[in-house]
Structures are given as C-alpha cells and as structure tokens.
Structure to design on (477 residues):
C-alpha cells in the first residue's frame, strides 16, 4: 500500500492515515482489512436493505474477540467514525458508515450448544438459521425472530420476539451473559451477577454499550416439530375474521401465537392462481406445546370463516422458521415503522383494512404480531426493553424494488403510522425504527428506562464511540 487513506472522524472532520498505520493494523489482525475494490469489501458493506448504499473507507472483517479489540482501539485512537455490522439486517442500515471504519462481524458465526445444560454460546455474526439448526439437533430452541437470515446480534440487543416468545419470553429474557468489548478496548463479561448494570442495558439497549463478541443463551426443549398453520382469507372478509380473532386470541394459552398479515397474495403453491396478486388477510399460527394438546386451540383459529387456502399440521421447526424467507430476500428497498397496542379496537381495524386496500407494492404488507404471555410477566424496569404490557406489535412494512417508488411507499407507511397513533400506546420497537427516526423523535422506544440507559452510556462510552445505532446520548456529567 503506497498512499494514505482519508477517513471520517466522529466529530465530523477527517483524518489521513498513513500506509504505515494500516500496515500496523493489518499485522495485529487475524481477519482481513478491506479497502474499496478489494475482495470482501462489497460483501461486508452490502446489507439486507437495498436503500442503504454506503462506502466505508476501511472495513475490518473480524475473526475473533482479539480482532474486535484491535479494531475498537484503532477507531478510538484515531477518533474515527465507527459502524459495527452483525447480520446486516438492521432496517436503518446502521451497520455501514460512509467514509469511516466498518467493523464487520459476519464471519464470526460459531454456535456451540451444551445439550446437558440447555445453553448455547453464539458468536455475533451468526444468523437465526445458524442458531436454529444447531439447537434443533438436540430438540432445543431459543426464542428468536421469524426470518432465518436475520442476525442474532441486532435481534437480541433490541429485544427479540417471534413464534416462541409468548411461551418462553423474548430473546433477551433467555440471555444469560455476554462478553463485550467496551469503548476503551477492554473485554468485559456481563451477567446478572457480574457488571449487572451493563447486562441490564444490553437487554434491549442496542449496540450503544460495546461490541458483543459472545452471547450465552438459555435453551428450551421443544422437540423438532410444532403444530403450525397458514390460513388465507380475502381481504373483503377481514373485518369479520378479525373481530372473531380478537376474541379467540384474548383467551389463547401462552403456547399459541397467531399473527396476521394484510398484503397482496404472493404466488404460493397451495393458493389457487386466480387469487395471486389479490388483496388478502393471512393468519399464521404456531403452537409451541404438545401437538395433540394444541389441536383444540388451533382449531378455533381454523374455524374463523372459510379460508381460500389452508395449510395446517405438524412441521419441522427449522422449516417453519424458514417459511417466510422467500418473501424477505435481500436486494429490495425497505422502509419500516412500528407501533405497540394493548388491544385492537374497531376503529383501529377500520384504519388497517383501509390502508391494506391501498398497499403501494406487491411486496409491502401490514404485519401484526401477537405478543404478551410470558413476555408481560417480566417487570418493565427489569430490562432495558420496556414494553411489558402490550399484546400486539404492528410493523408497517413497505418493500419495493424500483427507486422511483420511494416517495409513494414511504408516504404510505407514514400515513398508516399517523392514522394508527390514536389507537397505539406510543411505544415503538427499536429494531424496527427506520433511518429517519431517532430516540428524540420516538422516546417511546425506551420510555422511563431511557434515563438509566443514558447514565450507563456515560460511564461506559462517554465519548459516544458507539453512535452508529439508535443512539443513546451519554448523560451529562
């Protein structure tokens, strides 16, 4: 290397690093250092949301905790703007920065299961599919999200919910400990007994407090098959179906999670071609207990009207976790918003159905997740994630391929968010916040927990090195 590299600094300026500086960095690392045009650079900077197209000046592709420590110390020493990538699924694109240093963890994908202890050690670049496949070898599972290509790091640090969460809690409720590299380049272990404030903060507070190099999780024995189902109804029947849905799920056991989606029908193999592209309501359900015991509760959902397509029965859990992957492939433009609800009122249903009739693209959807259950039996102040009194999370999920549709799709999501606001709690899910939202504009992400988070941030990262995230500003000292 014969020329200096200019990088952005955290204060908005720039600095030039000599070839000697970069040679010294390379010499300390096991993983590669990639500059624009070099192998691995585009792979590291390309993330799931195609709206994010940023160019780091340098990418460090870490292979272990020592590489993470070296990269963090290098960024701190030179005052560099730093972005940290796990799985690259974050909707706001915070895994990549323009002109700064990107620390890419995606090569660190080890998952080590202890079947006797029912625990797993997971590296930060692992995807949910990696975790599912390793744990299911032993009939075990960790409650995670619903798309197998999501990264475990971002999902966990923001909270993490999916099909198993009503029975077994959020992903963070099953987190036993973390190893993380702090802003001063030290490796810290945090658990309920060791550095408990930090452990509290990372359970929902995002990547504000350090770079996690290892997660330790509690696992649950669920077997390898669950009773699952997908029911598709015409959108014209949505009000009737969802009126009954509300009554059924209000009494549902923790083992049953029933989500609904409004969208254009994709070309599913079990759906007649005449319905492809039409407006539909999809009910997706998962029973996480004994299969025979679940047939009654699942049958109540099956009895809601006459679906135009229905697939219900035992399914391997790993396959169920991958079911939505074809609808969530990388390379599309995405803009999300989220809201929390304690109930679904008649007026809220009217807003949803009206918006569903105006969905701007075949890939966009209104996704309503049923939560509650065990999640709500944890006190709101027990973890940084505060939403322990809600029963539904709405994801206004716009997804499209043509940049010419940007304004239309984003405007649709924003209007739906505004129209649903009178019926929502004001809480939002930090993992679903887009690039144009901050904790100042959406304080409901943390509510009263935000002040404590800011205090911990001031102790751990007073200079706000870890700022490429839904940033928690350090409290004034």
């Amino acid at each position: 290397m014969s020329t200096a590299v200019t990088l952005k600094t955290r204060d908005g300026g720039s600095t030039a690093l000599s070839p000697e500086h970069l040679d010294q960095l390379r010499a300390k690392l096991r993983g590669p250092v990639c500059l624009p045009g070099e192998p691995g650079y585009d792979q590291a900077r390309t993330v799931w949301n195609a709206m994010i197209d940023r160019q780091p000046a340098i990418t460090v592709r870490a292979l272990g905790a020592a590489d993470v420590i070296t990269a963090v110390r290098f960024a701190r020493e030179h005052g560099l703007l730093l972005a940290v990538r796990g799985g690259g699924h974050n909707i706001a694109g915070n895994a990549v920065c323009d002109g700064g240093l990107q620390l890419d963890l995606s090569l660190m994908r080890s998952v080590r299961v202890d079947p006797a202890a029912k625990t797993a050690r997971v590296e930060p670049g692992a995807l949910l599919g990696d975790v599912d496949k390793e744990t299911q070898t032993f009939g075990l599972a960790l409650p995670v999200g619903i798309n197998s290509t999501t990264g475990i790091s971002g999902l966990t640090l923001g909270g993490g919910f999916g099909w198993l969460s009503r029975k077994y809690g959020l992903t963070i409720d099953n987190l036993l400990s973390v190893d993380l590299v702090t802003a001063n380049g030290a490796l810290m272990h945090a658990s309920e007994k060791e550095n408990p404030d930090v452990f509290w903060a990372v359970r929902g507070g995002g990547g504000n407090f350090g770079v996690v190099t290892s997660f330790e999780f509690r696992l649950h024995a669920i077997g390898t098959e669950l009773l699952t189902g997908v029911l598709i109804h015409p959108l014209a029947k949505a009000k009737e179906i969802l009126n009954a849905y509300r009554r059924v799920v209000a009494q549902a056991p923790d083992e049953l999670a029933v989500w609904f989606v409004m969208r254009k029908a994709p070309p599913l193999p079990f759906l007649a071609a005449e319905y492809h592209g039409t407006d539909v309501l999809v009910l997706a359900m998962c029973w996480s207990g004994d299969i025979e015991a679940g047939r009654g509760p699942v049958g109540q959902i099956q009895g809601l009207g006459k679906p135009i397509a229905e697939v219900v029965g035992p399914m391997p859990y790993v396959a169920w976790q991958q079911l939505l992957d074809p609808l969530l492939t990388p390379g599309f433009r995405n803009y999300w918003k989220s809201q929390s609800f304690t109930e679904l009122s008649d007026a809220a249903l009217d807003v949803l159905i009206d918006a569903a009739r105006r969905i701007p693209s075949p890939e966009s959807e209104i996704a309503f997740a049923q939560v509650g259950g065990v999640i709500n039996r944890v006190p709101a102040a027990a973890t940084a994630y505060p939403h322990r009194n809600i029963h539904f999370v709405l994801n206004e999920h716009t997804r499209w391929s043509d940049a010419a549709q940007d304004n239309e799709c984003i405007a649709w999501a924003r209007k739906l968010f505004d129209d649903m606001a009178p019926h929502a709690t004001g809480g939002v899910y930090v993992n679903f916040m887009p690039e144009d939202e901050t904790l100042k504009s959406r304080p409901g992400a943390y509510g009263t927990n935000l002040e404590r988070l800011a205090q911990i941030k001031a102790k751990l990262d007073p200079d706000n090195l870890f700022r490429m995230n839904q940033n928690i500003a350090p409290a004034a000292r």
User: Anything to note?
Assistant: The two ends are 43 Å apart (CA to CA). The first helix runs from residue 19 to 28. The chain has three domains: 5-104, 111-221, 225-432.
